[in-house]
Amino acid sequence: MRIPGFIVIGGGDVGGGYVRQLLRAVAADRLETDRIVVVDRDPACAASRYDDPRVRIEARDWSQWLDAHLDEAGPDDHLVPYHWAPHLLLTWLEGQAARAGARTMRRTGPPPRGLPYEATTTAGDRALSYASWICPPTCIEPALCPHTKGAKDWSLAADLEAPRPADAVDDRIVFRCLHLVYGVGTIPMADILAARDRLRAGMEQGPRVYLVATSSHCHALATVLEVAPGAGGDDRVSTARPGATPPTP
Questions:
Q1: What does the pLDDT average to over 84-106?
Q2: Pair 5, 33: CB distance under 8 Å
Q3: In the chain, alpha helices (H)
Q4: What does the alpha-carbon distance between residue 98 and residue 78 come to, in Å, rounded to a whole number?
């Protein structure tokens, strides 16, 4: 499998672990890649200890770096999100909408779905999970759940993409973060760029309300976003660093 480049959000213990797993996959001939860009405020973060020419540390705030550089990534690259982070791709989408002349506003929600775990984060996102237990960051979400020992017959990403009148939205943008290799979940850049283009195309139809989610089969962050084209301004909501946002189990 060839993925030209990876963008890893966070270079601490978790992000550094993702870098280690990607390099292990390369060493095992399961993966071929040219670069692994790690975004972290600390240039001496855990990921910096890997002496490999493919690994580069970008010492910058996550949202600021994504806003400035994410659309420079190639369509065949992959993003590796930090699983306890704020809803970074939502913030990035808000910036893209603002550049296109739109005004965005986050609503509280979406409404409860009756899942085993649901909570509202400090940023107003809904943390959702089919698990009421703590899952390891490197879980590959196999067909048999390691915790229940039974079949994993659910997909939260698919649920969030399906029509649901109670959500009261015009469209849905779900960034699917699924297992790629050696316990590393990724989102293809092609999907991220397509979501941006879909949001921009929707602006031609007037004000619209979106459910925006980043989701694996088991866990998600979801937000309802209003986009008003031609309104100008920038009402984007700033997000906090890890610790201010309750983690999904």
A1: 93
A2: yes
A3: 13-27, 62-69, 88-99, 156-161, 189-202
A4: 24
Tokens of 137: 């960051």
What is the DSSP code string of 100-123?
A: TT-EEEEES-PPP---SEEEE-TT
CA atoms 7, 11, 14, 17: torsion sign? positive
Q: Is the pLDDT of residue 87 over 80?
A: yes
Amino acid identity for residue 148 in this structure: T
The pTM score is 0.89
- E strands, 132-238, where? 171-176, 178-181, 184-188, 208-215, 219-228
| Per-residue model confidence as pLDDT tens digits over 163-215 | 999 999 999 999 999 999 999 999 999 999 999 999 999 999 999 999 999 99
**Helices 88-99/189-202 angle, 10° precision:** 40
Cα 208 to Cα 62, 132, 142, 176, distances in angstroms: 27, 33, 36, 22
Ramachandran sector of residue 94 (left: φ over 0; alpha: ψ -120 to 50; beta: rest): alpha
Q: Could you tell me whether strands 208-215 and 171-176 are parallel, antiparallel, or unpaired per DSSP bridges?
A: parallel
Quick: pLDDT tens for 231-245.
Answer: 554 444 433 333 333
> What average pLDDT does range 160-165 have in this prediction?
94
Closest CA to 159 of 225, 218, 202, 205: 218
- In angstroms, rounded to a whole number, what is the distance separating the alpha carbons of residues 224 and 100? 19
